Amino acid sequence: MLDKDCSMRGYKQDQQEDMFSYVSLEDAVPKNHPLRKIKASVEAILEEMWADFDGLYSLTGRPGIPPEQLLKALLIQVLFTIRSETQLVEQLRYNLLYRWFVGLGMSGKVWDRSSFSTNRKRLIEGEIADRFFTLVVGLASKKGLVSNEHFSVDGTLIEAWASLKSFQKKEDGGADEKSASSDDGDGGNPSVNFHGEKRTNETHESKTDPEAKLYTKSKGQTAKMSFMGHVLMENRNGLAVDNRISQPGYHAEPDAAAEMAQGISGNGKKTIGGDKHYDQQTLTDTLREMNIASHAAQNIHPRRHTSSVDGRTTRHDGYEVSQRKRKRIEEIFGWLKTIGLMRRPMVRGLEKVGWMFSFGLAIYNLVRITNLCAE
Q1: pLDDT band, very low/low/confident/very high, at 7 (cuts 50, 70, 90)
Q2: Contact (CB, 8 A) for 258 and 174
């Protein structure tokens, strides 16, 4: 094989590794990288959470993963849509940007996936996501980005990490499962025929995630195993100020709206906008007792339904503004499902899904705050 002279284009065929090399992570990350501002905000918030972290760890035994690093690693996972913990741990080994953000340095040891999962469980049990979300909302409030008068509310379905095949009868499941499955020789993933069988949440449940429910928000959509996420948004800049996770149902959205409204009641008149599903007399009366005006879209049907929101509310210009602003809450749901891993989170149970939902909303707010401050 002939030797090739590529010196004119700056290439050497026989390259040797340097005996010593040093790269500063601080220099490797560009000064104008958007993660720098987010990191500064996150570290300030984590300082306030020092006491919360202290209560999660025992004074004896082997040291665990520093909760600050664990939380920043989870933030990277959501922000860059890394689907699994295995992929996250792998990328932390070689991605300089991720190592810099988490605080591992060039030579810091990366944890294995099992240790990562075990330590994350402590954060879930300690309700760290809700605390983190509250402090992020407080940061936005300090910067004057949060409205104290006008809000919007909405709910979205979150597909559960459970298949329709797991939705089986609550009693005598073995016999019914056998009759519904075909003997195709695949014990791990057999073919299932539910033709002619009526399945409801009262008679059936998922064997992999019993807290998930079969539900659809409209007749034209396929029913899926789901949870329901609820968000209360302030109307000035479209920031989430409260959230809930629940099992799906017809009354789940108005019930969550009434619960979240308690957190903003008092200190003057408030308004809450919503779609037609929130035009319910019970909810409107409940909000009125809190000195909150319902700005829900009117759900009027000449024979079946009379709106609970009358002309005393709709005649004001503020009602029209609320109807226009409330649609921005879909931007939050869109971000959560396309970037924030909430289209179909790879966890099971209300507690874990709720943790991811609250944490994802906090990260959305951080990104939004950073962009607003840059403007």
Answers
A1: low
A2: no
